[in-house]
Every structure is written in structure tokens, then in C-alpha cells.
Amino acid sequence: MNLGLLDENATGIAAQNLTYALRCVAYSDAYLRMDANGVNNPAPEGAGTVNAQIGAGSWEQFVLTPQDGGTVGLLSAEWHNCYLRIGTPSPQQIKPINCQFGCGALEKWVVRFVGPNRVAFEWRCCRTPS
């Protein structure tokens, strides 16, 4: 896989099809992980499992894909057409995080740069990025 560094040019870099492992700043050995086993079609509430894993293997690799409005989709490098997703809130305002087959409004993110090789992903469902 072609691993790359993130900087202020992420939207342009997204077009280069680079692969990233997203490491937690608070727990430096923990990486975002997606298990999309069996996710082959869109699901109304999303599907699969998203959590953290110690170390970065193939399930912890993502490709930033350019989307509309300056946003990106976080496409799994392991699972075909599966994107990181935050679902609609429950009555308790809990937003589930999982994956979705395809990239729609709930799978779009804005990249915020917080330091060298450090970014935050801001979820931008259903509104225009500022």
C-alpha cells in the first residue's frame, strides 16, 4: 500500500489515492479499525464494526476519497466500497459509528489540521462546511 503523510493539502492529496492508518493521539498504539465483513449492500442504519486496534494491519488502513463541498470519505483499504459512517442520533443523542456500503451524506468528513501529521476529522452530515 502507498502510505502518505497528511498536511494542509489533504483535499489535493485525496486525489492521489494514498492509504493512511489513523492513529489516536491519546493512545499512540491505538488505530481506527473497520470490520466490514459481510457489508456488500447499503444498510439503512449502517453495518459492520468500527473500533480501535493496537497496531495497524489491513483493517486499519483508509483512503481519503474526495467528495463534494471540500469533504472527504474515509474508504476502507481492505473492504470494497465501505466507508466510515456516523449514524443518526438516538433519542439519547448517541450517534453510532459503523460503516456503510457507498458514500452518502453520513459518510462525509472535513479534515482539520491540528499540527504536523495530525488532523481531526469533523463529521459534516447534512450541512455545508464552513
Describe this structure in words.
This protein is globular. The longest helix is centred in the N-terminal third of the chain and has 5 residues, at 10-14. A hairpin with a 5-residue loop joins strand 4 (61-66) and strand 5 (72-76). It has one helix spanning 10-14, and strands spanning 19-21, 30-35, 49-54, 61-66, 72-76, 82-86, 97-101, 108-115, 118-123. With 130 residues, the protein is mainly beta. The strands form 3 sheets. A 5-stranded antiparallel beta sheet has the order 1-4-5-8-9. The protein has a two-stranded antiparallel sheet with strand order 2-3. The chain has 1 helix and 9 strands.
Total DSSP E strands: 9
Average pLDDT, rounded to a whole number, is 83
Helix content: under 10%
N-to-C series of helices and strands: HEEEEEEEEE
For the terminal residues, how far apart are their CA atoms? 33 Å
Task: Catalogue the unreliable spans.
Answer: 1-6
Biggest beta-sheet profile: 5 strands, antiparallel
In DSSP terms (H or I, runs of 4 or more residues), the helix count works out at: 1
What Rg do the Cα atoms give? 14 Å
| Overall form | globular
Strand composition percent: 35-45%
- What is the topology, as strand order, of the major beta sheet? 1-4-5-8-9
Q: Find the structural class using helix and strand composition.
A: mainly beta
